[in-house]
Structure formats: C-alpha cells, structure tokens
Amino acid sequence: MTGVGYAFEEAWASVRRAGRSAAVSIGTIAIAFVTLGGFLLVSVNVQRVLDRWLESAEMSVYLHDDLSEELRTGLELYLRQQVAVAAVEYVSKERALERFRADFPELLDVTTAVAQNPFPAVFEVRLRTEGMDASAVDDLTTGLAGRGGVADVRYDRRWLTRLTGIVTSARIAAAVIAGVLMLGAAFTVAAVVRLSLHARRAEIDIMQLVGAPFSYIRGPFIVEGLLLGGAGAAVALLLIGVLYSAVGRWLGPDLTGLAGAGQLHFLGLREGVIMILGGLAVGAAAGTVASRSAR
Amino acid sequence: MIETQGLGKIYGRGLYALRDLNLTIDKGEFVFLTGPSGAGKSTLLRLLLLQERPTEGDVIVAGRNLSRLTRNEVQAYRRTVGFVFQDFKLIATKTVFENVSFALRVLGMPVEQQRRRTYQVLKWVGLQHRLNSRPDELSGGEQQRVAIARALVNEPHLVLADEPTGNLDPDLSLEIMNLFRDINASGTTVVVATHDRELIKWVGRRVVQLEHGQLAGLPEAPR
Ligand SMILES: Nc1ncnc2c1ncn2[C@@H]1O[C@H](COP(=O)(O)OP(=O)(O)OP(=O)(O)O)[C@@H](O)[C@H]1O
Ligand SMILES: [Mg+2]
User: Fold this and answer.
1) So what's the ipTM on this one?
2) What is the pLDDT of residues A5-36, one digit of tens each?
3) Which residue ranges make up each domain of chain A?
4) Using CB atoms, which residue from B72, B103, B108 is nearest to A210?
5) Mutate to test the interface with B, among A4, A16, A200, A210 (most CBs of B within 10 A)
6) How many degrees, rounded to 5, is the angle at CA B81 between CA B89 and CA B212?
7) To bridge A125 with a disulfide, which of A23, A59, B78, B143 should be the other Cys (CB 3.0-4.6 Å)?
8) Nearest C-alpha of chain B: how many angstroms from A171?
9) Arch. (CATH architecture) of A58-128
C-alpha cells in the first residue's frame, strides 16, 4: 500500500524535526525498558540457579538402626510407588561411613575413635521436578513420618520452594513497576506525537480537504510513535548489555561460584525480540491514541 | 449535479451567512457565483466541500445528501472535488511539486503517472520552473496557480473556486479561465466565486447572484 510508505516518510521527517523532544521520549521509553529488562535479566538468572538447586534437591529419609530387613524393603517399595519420587537409593550405615571417610580423609581419626558407626542408614530420594507442586511433597513427608522405622526426614527443597515464592513476588512487583514506567513512557510518546500533530495542524486540515484517506492522515503519527517506541526499546537493550557486562566483570567470579559451574546468562533472543516488539507496540498504541483527533 | 434545499448557515450570534437557499446546478455547467462582499459565496463553497456543515437544509451532490456521508465517504467525495480557496491551502513544508502530486497520491496512482501528470498540469499554469520551491518562496499569484494546478490535476467531477484569479494579472486570469473552460468542456462541473465582472462577461456563462445569503431578486427576509 502506498499509504504505508508515505506514513514512514512523514514519520521519519517528523521525528527528525522533533529532535530534542523525540530524544526525551526515546529516553523515557529506554528507562522503562532498562528497568523491565534489568528485572528480567536478574530474575532469569536467579531462576536458573534456583532450578539447578531444585533439580539436585533430594529428600533424605533417615532410618532407625534397629530397622528390620523386612520393614526396610517395605519402605523402599512404598517410596518407589510415590508419583513425586523419581529415584531411590539406599545407603547403608557402612556405605555412609565409607562415604564420609572418602569425603573427609582428614577426619579419619574421629571416625576410628568412635567405637560404633555413628551414621544412620538412609534412603536418598530424588524427587521429580516437573509438574510437582509443593503439596505432593508435603504429603510424602507426612506419609513417611507416620511409618515405622523412619527416624527423620530431611527435605532441603522446602526452603528452596519458599525462596521461589519470594522470587515470584519480587517478579510481580517488578512487573508492576515496569508497567507503571511503561505507562509513563507511553504518555511521553503520546505527548511528542501530539506535539507534532499540533505542529502539522494546518497540513492535516489541507490533507482532509484534498480527501486523503484517514490512513494517510493518521498513519504518520502512529508510525512516529512506533519508531520512538522501537528506538527506546533498542536503546534499552543496548544499555542493559553494557550494564550486564559491567556487572559481570565486577561480580563475575562471585556470581559464578554461586550459580555453580554455569555461566551468567544474558537475555536470550526471545527476550530481546519481545522487548523490541513491546517497544514498538507501546509506541504505536501511544501514537494511535494521540492521533485520535486527526480524524 | 448540485442541489441545495432550504440551505442555511448561521455563524455565531444568529446571523445568517446563507438563508433558505434553493439552488440547482446541472452536471457539466459552468457557474459564476457573484454578489457583494459578505453575500455568502465563500460559505456556499465551504459547505459544498464539507469544510463546514449546514445549520439548516440539505446539500445534494450527484444524488447524495452530503450531510449523510460517513467520515470515510466524505474523504472519498472530496477526492472527486477540486478546490481553489482564497487562502490557497498549500502545505508549507512540501514543495510545489509535492503539493500538487499529493492529490494524485491519495488516489493511489502509480508514482510514474503521478509525476507525468503533475508536471503537465504545473506546465499549464506556467510553474514548471518552480517545481522544487516551497509555497512561502512564491508570490501570491504563483501560490494561487499551484492551488489551481492541484484542483485540476486529478480531473475532478466538480471544481470549486473562490476568487481563483484574485491575485493574477488580467492576461494570466484569462489563461486560467481558459483552463477552467477546458476542464469544463471535458464534463467537469465548475463553480467559480468572483467579483470580476470583466471575467464573467468574457467567459459568458451562467451567473448566480447572491445577496445577504439568498439568491438576489428574491424579497429579502428580515435578519
Ligand atoms: N467563520 C466565520 N465566523 C463568523 N462569521 C463568518 C465566518 N465566515 C463568514 N462569516 C460571515 O458570513 C457572511 C458571509 O461570508 P462569506 O465569506 O461567505 O462572504 P463572501 O460572499 O465570500 O464575501 P467576499 O466576497 O468578501 O469573499 C459574512 O457576513 C461573514 O462575516
Ligand atoms: Mg469570499
């Protein structure tokens, strides 16, 4: 459609004419998106670490020393039947001691000094991570506690789950803040578009008299918003990249230690594309609203 | 082609610019609107372009009541009407060439055709050497000719002209009138508002005389 080419030509000319105010609106959009992207970046990485921890999380079911072979087999069977359970490994008292000795050879004296083997036998249970909610695991814990022969159940995923909850709330808060900023950015874009609408009032009147279709009259302003929004998001992406590499260089080693062997991750292609599209959409929406009077 | 029925337009405090006007202009006619200043000539032309809405009565053009058009239909209707107004209505940021070709662009005409046609019409009005000037770099008469070129470029069904030769010297006025006659000869209805008796005499077509917003010769209503 020829109207599209026209809209882009005019919008580009208008953005250039707007100069400073265009730069300001690109700036505010960029700030909103840096905030959004920053939160996204942090939460992506935190989630990654949490996921890794969650994946390796195990439930340890400690057994009484006097547990009979029969009861033990029954317990193992019970565990294997649970949906939340992915794998069960039995570690006998002897194996537990061996493992300790292998892991901490410098403490060999301590273990030999003790007459009895102090380690309890344990079922190390690997839990399913996918599609499991906290209640399934809770059920399992209570179920186990009621069974004979179980001395203690230790489950290190519980606090991880709590942590995940905190991260989720933080994410929601971040989304709200980013939304407010985005709204502010949209208003700024709308103000700039309205300004150029004002500057071109006479021109719009003439275009209307010549019989220009409304797509011709309004198109340039919508595209102007689109360009400002897209540019803002692109600038934000660039800024996040710079911030990210700066933070990475500054905190890199510590963070890497915390995150395990894995590297820190930058926003993926998907997040980048979403941000740019988001910028375009916010800008176009602002332009559309602002140019309502040009009909 | 044009029919007004009980047409009235009131500006501000109850003063009629047009009052109970019943006028018929046939398709293909060339009509001069004349009358003293303030008679309502410009008002009638503005109503015909839907630049303003009537206060009373109806305007019917080509069988369609202009008051009933949707906004998109208004735009489509305007694409079939060429207009030359006293204040030219040129886009200040565009060149002479762009101002004229824009009327073709909104029709969706291919660019090459737009160019050829625009150049041709600007040559008719004697502005082929000012294609890249901006309106504010032109004299009043030159701006008027750009407006005329734009009004004629898309071969409209109807041309509305308000003092189209007001800023032109007599020779050029006659040339422009010849352009209007040519376009009228091809079937376009032409309505020209003017005070210029010489011009009216020279062209020798139907004359509609307005006075106080009504056809002259009718008993004047109390204002
Ligand atoms: N926008 C307006 N607001 C208020 N009154 C107006 C407006 N436009 C025109 N009028 C009034 O309407 C009446 C008719 O004006 P109009 O411009 O139609 O006259 P005209 O015949 O074109 O005069 P001229 O020959 O001087 O151009 C005048 O009394 C004028 O003062
Ligand atoms: Mg007038």
Assistant:
1) 0.88
2) 878 888 788 777 777 777 887 888 888 878 87
3) 3-53+161-291, 58-128
4) B103
5) A210
6) 75
7) A59
8) 46
9) 2-Layer Sandwich (3.30)
